[in-house]
Amino acid sequence: MEDGTFQSLGYCANTGVDDDVIQWDQRADCEVRQILDRIADKWSLLVISLLDKRSLRFTELRRAIDGISQRMLSRTLRHLERDGLVKRIVYPTVPPRVDYELTPMGATLHSTIHALVLWTEEHQNAIAAARAAYDERIAAEQEEVFGRPATAGYSGASPGRP
Amino acid sequence: MEDGTFQSLGYCANTGVDDDVIQWDQRADCEVRQILDRIADKWSLLVISLLDKRSLRFTELRRAIDGISQRMLSRTLRHLERDGLVKRIVYPTVPPRVDYELTPMGATLHSTIHALVLWTEEHQNAIAAARAAYDERIAAEQEEVFGRPATAGYSGASPGRP
DNA sequence: CGGTATCCCCTAAGATACTG
DNA sequence: CAGTATCTTAGGGGATACCG
């Protein structure tokens, strides 16, 4: 085993629900966090979405995702398998063949995830615009602080270390 | 600046959509990844869900989340603000007061996220069961490797490595 | 109060190499 | 082909101290 099964989840002790602000945020977060972190990690989404179309072999997945390393694909698949989202089917043929497919539960997750993906696709332009606006606003505020950067006069008084 | 605005997103170059497997996985992933990574990071979800109920001040958020550090709350809020999901309102009063509230876009994101949270809550038992089953199966396979298979007794040779 | 700047640790992800 | 084992590194995230 390379890494532990659990990592952080330290603040999960349901500190006090008296506060009217807290609802599922703290409580459900204990379980939601780890599951969300798992399915929303760098690769799981990709794998799930690919497998939703049809079952795939290890190498097919690797080539389809292409940025992924063997290591991460392997780990991701094992995680998904452990969570019951993906089924691993081994054919004991001479060149080994392993197929991966979504379980029914995995398929339901895909639907939910897809909604999130759609949201992202629908709003990515708005987000990009918001980012641009924000960056510009910040840059403008920097101008005020430094004085007019007529020639981008950056007085390099390195604040370095004391 | 402590950290760059972009980090990875290296494999985004839309390698080749000829493959029938790829659809939004690679293309949309370029945008989806960064946005998903943002909203699924350790704290953003909490903040969004809290703000969905009503606008809150910095300290209110800090106390509501309670496990969060100033640093991370500040960073999280700035990220969300930059993405246009959260609005920051500064009151120039003598003790400074800053309110945060969801933008309309942030509210729509919350709805989508909520669906995912609901999925998680609905399936957490199934996932826990799947994990237990998986772990048990793996343990059984370990037996085969280390001791004698199922027929004979369980040679309790601790399989653990030092 | 509402932040930012610094330091530091720890782990998750990448690269590489080896095996059944 | 389908993985594991090992090494290394970037950066996420906490603690602390200080500024407007």
TrEMBL record, chains A, B:
Alphabetical UniProt keywords: DNA-binding, Transcription, Transcription regulation
Coiled coil: none
Alphabetical list of PROSITE patterns matching this protein: HTH_HXLR (PS51118)
Superkingdom per UniProt: Bacteria
Domain HTH hxlR-type: 30-128
InterPro entries assigned: HTH_HxlR, WH-like_DNA-bd_sf, WH_DNA-bd_sf
Alphabetical list of Gene3D superfamilies matching this protein: Winged helix-like DNA-binding domain superfamily/Winged helix DNA-binding domain (1.10.10.10)
PANTHER family recorded: TRANSCRIPTIONAL REGULATOR, MARR FAMILY, TRANSCRIPTIONAL REGULATORY PROTEIN
Name of the protein in question: Helix-turn-helix domain-containing protein
Organism: Nonomuraea corallina
